[in-house]
Specification:
Beta Polymerase, domain 2; DNA polymerase, domain 1; alpha+beta; single chain; globular; six-stranded mixed β-sheet
Length: about 260
């Protein structure tokens, strides 16, 4: 087992040599570390308990572990039936494309047409919203609504725009193309005035303003895309520590700059 993971387990009161059930060991680690205990740790614990490498864990088992970790990390997380994709989408991180802002605008116009005043705010978020930052060529759009639990008010409208309802949790709803449609957009619906709404815009604006953070994130994503090309959840989970650390810096930056949601940083 990785020495770093062993130290973290011991700090969480877990003796790695006691052959504790890997699920229980991860639960204790997660109780101590929160989201910093990631799917990669769960993979490592499972592989160690079976005496194999992480790469040798069966695909079906990985899917089970992914679901377990997502339920811990995202309260109320639930996948919506009928939203599966019929083709695989390997992780691909590409150089920043000047066409991304216009692609966002095209999708924004479509969403505005369908949602009207039910959307209180629509923002381009994620890496494609940060000029110069390498990213998966997928436009992330954040839609704010007055009541995220009132799905009838916005789910049909977003699906009319060609984006399937994929998952829900206590804080937001997630949409992306289903079937064999190109995976070129993702929509995240959150409550107006919520922490979710603020944090994702703050992270975007901080990366736009901080060249060093932007470059570190670019290099990390290129490395992770090469390592986890066929494991989208692991790719996202592996970014967790960077994102949490960056958000701590972003909060200090927001105070220094007087940043708030809706103003220009």
């Amino acid at each position: 087992m990785n020495p770093s993971l062993d130290r973290r387990l011991r700090a969480a009161g877990v003796d790695a040599e006691a052959r504790l059930d890997p699920g229980e060991a991860f639960a204790r680690l997660h109780e101590r570390e929160g989201q910093r205990a990631t799917l990669l740790d769960r993979y490592a614990l499972e592989a160690a308990s079976r005496g194999v490498s992480v790469e040798d864990l069966p695909h079906a088992l990985r899917a089970e572990l992914q679901a377990d970790v997502l339920r811990l990390h995202i309260p109320g997380w639930e996948v919506i039936g009928g939203s599966d994709r019929s083709r695989t989408d390997p992780i691909e991180v590409v150089a920043s494309d000047p066409a991304w802002p216009e692609l966002y605008q095209q999708w924004r116009r479509r969403l505005v047409q369908e949602l009207g005043e039910r959307a209180t705010r629509i923002e381009h978020v994620g890496s494609t919203a940060v000029p110069g930052l390498a990213a998966k060529p997928i436009i992330d759009i954040q839609v704010s609504v007055l009541d995220v639990d009132d799905e009838a008010a916005y789910v049909p409208a977003i699906e009319r725009a060609g984006i399937a309802f994929r998952a829900r949790d206590l804080e937001h709803r997630y949409f992306r193309p289903s079937g064999d449609r190109p995976r070129d957009v993702q929509v995240h619906v959150c409550g107006a005035g919520s922490k979710w709404e603020r944090v994702h815009v703050l992270f975007r604006d901080f990366l736009r303003a901080d060249a060093a953070a932007r470059e570190a994130y670019r290099l990390l994503k290129l490395d992770l895309a090469a390592r986890y090309q066929d494991d989208r959840i692991a790719y996202n989970e592996a970014k967790t520590s960077f994102i949490l650390n960056a958000l701590e810096r972003a909060e200090a930056w927001a105070v220094e700059r007087g940043w708030r949601l809706g103003n220009d940083a």
